[in-house]
Specification:
The protein contains 13 helices and 16 strands. With 437 residues, it is α/β, with parallel strands linked by helices. A six-stranded parallel β-sheet has the order 3-2-1-4-5-6, with helices on both faces. Strands 9-8-7-10-11 form a five-stranded antiparallel β-sheet. Strands 12, 13, 14, 15 and 16 form a five-stranded antiparallel β-sheet that branches. The longest helix is centred in the C-terminal third of the chain and has 23 residues. The model has no long low-confidence stretch (mean pLDDT 94). Bound molecules: NADPH dihydro-nicotinamide-adenine-dinucleotide phosphate and L-homoserine. The site of NADPH dihydro-nicotinamide-adenine-dinucleotide phosphate (NDP) has 28 residues, from helix 1.
């Protein structure tokens, strides 16, 4: 689509491996992905097995070789921790390279220093992956919600603890076993205490608050309580009272006044009872959700997978593409940023609806005669329609209702079976036919 963009990767672990996998398989993604060249990758251990094939020239143990490589345009920092991550980011910036990072620990503590350096060098530092894993929340706060006066940002922003709380609540699995599983799945931080003690969520709410309210946040001043001392008994009592327990992070404006020189804010991270009918109560497993409340938009919720290789890599690559798009636009005078312009690059056509597979829900009025469920089942089976459930309701002298939910079948298969079933003498009609997820 345009000139090549050299990408240098610092780290090839959970997130770095996910990023490399996307960059090395551009088919069926936005065409700009094919313009990204994975030039150099720094790791600690050259002998560790990797999820992608890289040449000996691409891999290095020296991260400086990545940030100093003239063919690298964008440095992706996914090694984690404060140092050497901070120094490598600053070095990349001083070399005129834009940076993409998933490292909330470094941004929450050194974000101002890094942003100032980037502004002075005229490069970008993008951090979509630092909060909410695969959920787009950073760019929406910076761009799509910019017309609002934000009053509150709150939510579940640590995937590991939400995964632990969900498994404990639904399966009664022991705390230590679930942490080990979260580590195995690549959700947890290098030191999982950062997750369970609430420190990671505190980093993230500090970053969200800085964007939402427009001022740097003193990360060390965020009251933080994790889930390590939460008792199962409290989760059980909360449940009997109609609540779930979630590790919530909250940042809210503490004044109704308009313009103030210093905006008072409250930030906190703590285990919190959430009514079961609240939108955050249904956010389970590794999923995260962030509620943004602003004027005039009201309340919007961003929801999705909050950790893990694929979702986080999706956010990292989105940032690389944004930088690539802006660069293409500035290189070619008169050409629009291809991402903002949302160009189409192919034609699309609609398929025959009869070929579309989905689950179906059907309800029949029948006579309450022996064997009717079997005959309906056989008729579906003869047409290769697999049944998920078949249940009889309200059987009496006047008849019965039989509800069938199928597995995925084509509309044509379904129509054939329904035609046959409705011609059966014991079927008085089809009362409902709905799609089903
Ligand atoms: P991993 O521990 O899986 O990967 C870290 C990678 O960095 C490894 O490849 C490691 O090399 C390499 N590395 C570490 N130190 C150095 C160094 N000094 N020089 C060269 N390479 C180094 O971490 P994750 O991928 O899980 O996390 C990376 C970052 O992304 C962290 O900031 C984390 O907070 C953040 N993040 C993680 C998410 C997740 O779901 N895992 C989600 C969102 C953000 P080697 O492989 O040889 O050991
Ligand atoms: N350890 C983090 C979490 C990774 O579980 O949410 C995503 O930032």
């Amino acid at each position: 689509m345009g000139s090549r963009i050299g990408v240098g990767l610092l780290g090839l672990g959970t997130v770095g491996g996910g990023v490399a996998s996307i960059l090395l398989s551009p088919d069926e993604r936005h065409p700009l992905v094919a313009d990204l060249d994975l030039v150099r990758v720094a790791v600690r251990d050259l002998d560790r097995p990797r999820p992608v094939d890289l040449s000996a020239d691409q891999l290095t143990k020296d991260p400086e070789a990545v940030v100093n490589d003239p063919s690298v345009d964008v440095v992706v920092e996914v090694i984690g921790g404060i140092e050497p991550a901070r120094s490598l980011i600053l070095k990349a910036i001083s070399n005129g390279k834009s940076v993409v990072t998933a490292n909330k620990a470094v941004i929450a503590r050194h974000g101002r220093e890094i942003a100032d350096a980037a502004a002075a060098a005229g490069v970008y530092v993008l951090i979509e992956a630092a909060v909410g894993g695969g959920i787009p929340i950073i760019e929406p706060l910076k761009q799509s919600l910019g017309g609002n006066r934000i009053n509150r940002v709150s939510g579940i922003i640590n995937g590991t603890t939400n995964y632990i709380l969900t498994r404990m609540a639904t399966e009664g699995v022991a705390y230590d076993d679930v942490i080990a599983e979260a580590q195995r799945l690549g959700y947890a931080e290098a030191d999982p205490a950062a997750d369970v003690d609430g420190l990671d969520a505190a980093d993230k709410i500090a970053i969200l608050a800085a964007l939402a309210f427009g001022g740097a946040i003193d990360r060390s001043g965020v009251p933080t309580e994790g889930i390590s001392s939460l008792q199962g008994r409290d989760v059980e009592y909360a449940s009997q009272l109609g609540y779930g327990v979630k590790l919530l992070a909250v940042a809210e404006r503490m004044t109704d006044q308009g313009a103030t020189d210093v905006l008072p804010l409250s930030l906190r991270v703590q285990p919190t009872l959430v009514p079961t009918d609240h939108p955050l109560a249904g956010v389970n497993g590794v999923n995260n959700a962030i509620l943004v409340e602003g004027d005039p938009i009201g309340r919007v919720m961003f929801y999705g997978p909050g950790a893990g290789a694929g979702p986080t890599a999706s956010a990292v690559v989105a940032d690389i593409l944004n930088i690539a798009g802006v660069r293409h636009a500035s290189e070619a005078a008169g050409r629009l940023d291809p991402l903002l312009a949302a160009d189409s690059w192919r034609q699309c056509k609609l398929v025959d609806p009869g070929d579309v597979r989905q689950k179906h829900y059907v309800r029949f009025h029948t006579s309450d005669t022996p064997g009717v469920i079997g005959r309906i089942g056989s008729c579906f089976g003869d047409r290769d329609v697999s049944i998920q459930s078949i249940v009889q309701f309200r059987a009496n002298e006047a008849g019965a209702e039989i509800v069938v939910i199928t597995h995925d079948v084509t509309q044509k298969q379904m129509d054939d079976a329904l035609k046959e079933i409705q011609s059966m003498p014991e079927i008085s009609g089809m009362a409902a036919h709905l799609g089903c997820l």
